[in-house]
Amino acid sequence: MPIGNVPKLKKAKIFKLRRTDPFLVVQQGVTKVFSKHLKKGQVFTFSLQASFTPSPDETLGNLTECFGQNNTSLEVGYSLTPNYG
């Protein structure tokens, strides 16, 4: 889910990942998709529920159990600036 002034996907993209994958896999996947739109030195900020950024080594299974929708999907926000206070 894009937040602020960041590129949007032309089509909704659903990434199918394993519950044992670390959150870092999501960060790397989104960054790769938008790499041609990033200027040198720009990096994405990622968040769950627009309130916090999980540790890159936290498993997607744990995050989905705690913050997911119906324990099956996890909505991740991405921005070029911090999007929470």
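(ticket continues) Second input and output from the same batch:
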Amino acid sequence: MASGVKTKKPIQTKFRMPLLNWVALKPSQITGTVFTELNDEKVLQELDMSDFEEQFKTKSQGPSLDLSALKGKAAQKAPSKATLIEANRAKNLAITLRKGNLGADRICQAIETYDLQALGLDFLELLTRFLPTEYERSLITRFEQEQRPMEELSEEDRFMLRFSRIPRLPERMATLTFLGNFPDTVQLLMPQLNAIIAASMSIKSSDKLRQILEIVLAFGNYMNSSKRGAAYGFRLQSLDVLLEMKSTDRKQTLLHYLVKVIAEKYPQLMGFHSDLHFLDKAGSVSLDSVLGDVRSLQRGLELTQREFVRQDDCTVLKEFLRANSPTMDKLLADSKTAQEAYESVVEYFGENPKTTSPSMFFSLFSRFIKAYKKAEQEVEQWKKEAVAQEAGADAPSKEEAPAPKARRQQMDLISELKRKQQKEPLIYESDRDGAIEDIITDLRNQPYIRSDTGRRSARRRPPGPPLQVTSDLSL
């Protein structure tokens, strides 16, 4: 405390007053300033502040305070309102509880009886975020030990207190969430497992596909064995190279040539791709994720069974286990079959199942089939174009035939025009004696006449019959 500065005591007001948002100075900051000369306590003694309090008190007021009681308890610290959860967390909990539109007792009762229909899966998953933490549980325990009144708690704190009293709360919430998600999860996983099984088994059992690969191996060895030695097999990614190898004239790929060979020599193999099923669907499956989801469902069912052992009178758990245990058994069996079928087919084609995902493996065959079908279409189109070209070479051109006829019509029209011109003279005989001289004189005086002045020049022309102008006139 700075020397010479009197210590000021806090002022107890009758009503709760708003805060003045100023920047206050500490005693050490007013040395040598005007504030050392001011006495605000004297001013307050001179004024009646009750009217000021009435006009400026905050709208939210607690019960009236007894000033004499406040003086007696000035040395004591006023009790603070109890809080069991952090402010932002309490705010989010309040929003969640409004969405549930249920009271705290009804929510907790539904959790205790596994009444998923009353809670709803979406609300349940939101509520799972507010499972009491260790710190919150310690605050709750202290509050109960001190036997403090419930009135000190907000609505969110009261819910948390009731929520935390549910026996085995985390296990119950996990079981409820499992019960709600189980049907949809099974419907999502089953088709993916079936696609892996069907695609794997159809590829491995296809005799036509094996013969196609045999032909590819034969052509590859024919091209490479003299330089690199004979190959006994090839990686499946080599199928993409068939599109890159071009013929000498660069007009076709090796795949186009193989398509021609298969169509001519091995026509029974042309529809080999009809033996392969669900390749695209299987290629979109993340088998590791699916197997992980199946294991998660298995753990959820085991948790439900343990909860039922503790509460064998719970009809909800009993009915769920009766209806869905067979479904879980089938899902486990299918997941094992899918894993074994996939690993078997990958190894059968010389790949490593640990480093080759379904998206990589099945997409190799999908790309090959699409490229093969496109090559088939192009080869067929080339055949049609060749046939059409041969047929066109033998037949006369249809566009050249009408040309002589049109030329003859044009010549006939020119002859007719010339004949008419000879019959009709440029100047009538009655005007031959002076008409031409007048025209030449007029043109010399006016060598150029605009089209819009033609009427004026016509008025100066001597009267006579109109002229007939033809393209044969030369001056």
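Agent notes: The two ends are 126 Å apart (CA to CA). Residues 67-79, 426-433, 448-462, 464-475 have pLDDT under 50 and may be disordered. Closing as not reproducible unless the customer responds.
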